[in-house]
Specification:
- The chain has 251 residues and is mostly helical.
- Helix 4 packs antiparallel against helix 6 and helix 7 runs antiparallel to helix 8.
- It has nine helices and two strands.
- Strand 1 and strand 2 form a beta hairpin.
- A two-stranded antiparallel sheet has the order 1-2.
- The chain has one domain: Arp2/3 complex 21 kDa subunit ARPC3.
- It is globular and about 65 Å long.
Length: 251
């Protein structure tokens, strides 16, 4: 009879350091992605340009996928993307449940103005976290298309250059995938949720995309540093783990 059938604890061998680091990178990726869907609806003005707050976090998800793709390969990068898709859907469902819960009349804000009772707070909560299913569909479609495209192009450029020119696959894959993501998700947001005109939406999309391109170019040194430091850390910790296991066996 197996240990699973007896209901006892399941003993697993300890993860090697390569797998541990992958888990951490996947956690960082999912956190950035969930945060993007939470803060992405806020628009702000910077140097006269209207941008989405998602620019703070979403470009970093492509940096993480490129690091994972380079070290662990396309399959694990795709697996991380699918994991992020599932966790984002879970977050959206929970947020919608929180919106449906009746607001207490004593709920108020000591920080924001004009939010002194439950009705005002519920309205603010709805405005901040309420999303239509059209927007959810657009966001998730854009995410899957962009991230899987990024992973595919990253390895396409890797094969094309025989593993050389990391800067090319880092920037080339991100620029194309960010273009797809920007057009798809913002089409749903600007035209569906905000009701903007075509030209107005296209102008804001162009500005957002240019900023994403600038961020992608700026994070190239971070990609090199991230890959080098991750590989170096795994190698050092793996040696320590092997030495510790040898010492334990010797005893």
């Amino acid at each position: 009879m197996s240990i699973l059938q007896t209901g006892g604890p399941v003993n697993h061998p300890s993860l090697n350091w390569s797998d541990r680091v992958y888990v951490v990178l996947a956690m960082v990726f999912v956190t950035l992605l969930v945060l993007t869907n939470i803060i992405g609806q806020k628009l702000f003005v910077w140097f006269g340009f209207t941008l989405t707050a998602g620019l703070i976090t979403y470009p970093l998800t492509f940096l993480v996928t490129d690091i994972v793709s380079e070290i662990y390969g396309k399959r694990r990068a795709d697996r991380m993307v699918v994991m992020g898709f599932g966790m984002t859907l879970l977050m959206l469902v929970i947020v919608q449940i929180s919106i449906a819960l009746p607001a207490s009349p004593i709920w108020g804000s000591a920080i924001a103005t004009d939010l002194k009772d439950g009705a005002a707070m519920q309205n603010a909560w709805l405005g901040s976290f309420g999303v239509g299913w059209w927007l959810v569909t657009g966001s998730m479609c854009a995410y899957l298309v962009a991230q899987l495209c990024d992973n595919y192009l990253f390895h396409f450029f890797r094969r094309l250059t025989n593993g050389k020119h990391l800067w090319l696959r880092n920037n080339g894959s991100t620029m194309v995938s960010q273009l797809l993501d920007t057009f798809i998700v913002n089409s749903f947001l600007f035209y569906g949720a905000f009701g903007w005109g075509f030209v107005q939406g296209l102008e804001v999309m162009a500005v957002i995309y240019l900023f994403k391109i600038a961020i992608a170019a700026a994070d190239t040194p971070l990609c090199y540093l991230g890959i080098w430091s991750t590989r170096n850390f795994i190698a050092r910790m793996s040696v320590k783990q092997t030495d510790a296991e040898k010492g334990s066996n010797a005893e």
